[in-house]
UniProtKB/TrEMBL annotation:
It is an enzyme of class 3 (hydrolase). Residues 1-20 are annotated as: Disordered. Belongs to the MoxR family. Residues 59-203 form the AAA+ ATPase domain. InterPro entries: AAA+_ATPase, ATPase_AAA-3, CbbQ/NirQ/NorQ/GpvN, ChlI/MoxR_AAA_lid, P-loop_NTPase. It comes from Novispirillum itersonii. Its EC number is 3.6.3.-. Pfam families: AAA_3 (PF07726), AAA_lid_2 (PF17863). This is MoxR-like ATPase. Keywords: ATP-binding, Hydrolase, Nucleotide-binding.
């Protein structure tokens, strides 16, 4: 295991809790890399998507996958569930989907003694890995039903709170092309996703491999590498990895430069309507640690901040109307922001 940019002593949390042993760190880091390898055995041509999805789960967050149909988004979610040993369910979001179809509902039952009582029937949200397929096709009311679950790890039905399983992650998908009959996610819910991962077409060699491996007699079944307890241990470890001052400064500079009122960049001041809030900085702190561990390092670097800036920030910023008219894209803004850090 590489120890580039690693401290001389085992990692210690900011709160001063006891350090994890190097043996535990090595074991968990090996598990994380094994999980990455197991997913890559089944999902072809999407190495960046696999890495960013795993980083999000290791950091304890939720993922928004943006891509046209047929790019293995559903297969990715099922594969992650199997490899990580998580119970997983899928909900197809449609305009007629109601909040109770996700959260569950109470039914009135009559016992053998004739007494009536309510019993709560759990919905599909009571799982460890929930795939919300085409989330923008459901009404805002139904979309918001996931908001409390994603933020508080619990749901409230008829005034009664119900805890969700731990760990709990939402992997939602969106089709970026067909927007008729859709309801764009509000900014408050977008901010609950740790990353927005854009899923693009595979390159020619990867697509050739897909054709050969998925249309023959090959048994492409994912294998389990770790369990829910291991994932929770990894999430705790990541929060205890040290972050150097240079990385903290880079995150702060990146986030604050993305706000039009504070930015030193003319491009941002002229073309950004609103920029990332403090939650974006928190997301970068966690995901940079997770990326470092996944790559065999015990501390993140500024390179991690640059690599993860786009998936962490692209759904937390909005362009002005003039930017769209002039052909300025969010990718142009993000490129200018990360260029400051090099």
């Amino acid at each position: 295991m590489s120890h580039t940019s690693a401290p001389d002593s085992p990692p210690r949390s900011a709160g001063g809790s006891a350090p994890a042993s190097l043996q535990d760190v090595e074991r968990l880091a090996d598990l994380a890399r094994s999980a990455h390898g197991a997913v890559s055995e089944v999902i072809f041509g999407q190495p960046r998507v696999i890495e960013e999805s795993l980083i999000t789960l290791l950091a304890g967050g939720h993922v928004l996958l943006i891509g046209v149909p047929g790019l293995a988004k559903t297969r990715l979610v099922h594969t992650l569930g199997t490899v990580l040993g998580l119970d997983n369910k899928r909900v197809q979001f449609t305009p007629d989907l109601m909040p109770a179809d996700i959260l569950g509902s109470e039914v009135l039952e009559e016992g053998a003694d004739g007494r009536r009582s309510f019993r709560f029937l759990r919905g599909p949200v009571f799982t460890q890995l929930l795939m919300a397929d085409e989330i923008n096709r459901a009404s805002p009311r139904t979309q918001s039903a996931l908001l409390q679950a994603m933020e508080e790890q619990q749901v409230t039905v008829a005034g009664v709170p119900h805890d969700l399983p731990r760990p709990f992650h939402v992997l939602a998908t969106q089709n970026p092309l067909e927007q008729e009959g859709t309801y764009p996610l509000p900014e408050a819910q977008l901010d609950r996703f740790l990353m927005q991962i854009d899923v693009s077409y595979p390159d020619a060699e990867a697509e050739r491999q897909i054709l050969l491996m998925t249309t023959g007699s090959y048994d492409l079944r994912p294998r389990r590498v770790l369990g829910p307890e291991d994932l929770v241990d990894l999430q705790r470890l990541i929060r205890r990895l040290p972050v150097g001052d240079s990385v903290v400064d880079a995150i702060l500079r990146l986030i604050r430069s993305g706000r039009p009122d504070d930015s030193p960049l003319d491009l941002v001041r002229r073309h950004v309507a609103w920029g990332p809030g403090p939650r974006a900085g928190q997301a970068l702190m966690l995901t940079c640690r997770a990326r470092a561990l996944l790559q065999g390092r015990l501390a993140p670097s500024v390179d991690d901040v640059i690599a993860l800036a786009a998936p962490v920030l692209r759904h937390r910023m909005a362009l002005t109307f003039s930017a769209r008219a002039e052909g300025v894209t969010l990718d142009d803004i993000l490129a200018a922001l990360t260029a400051q850090l090099t």
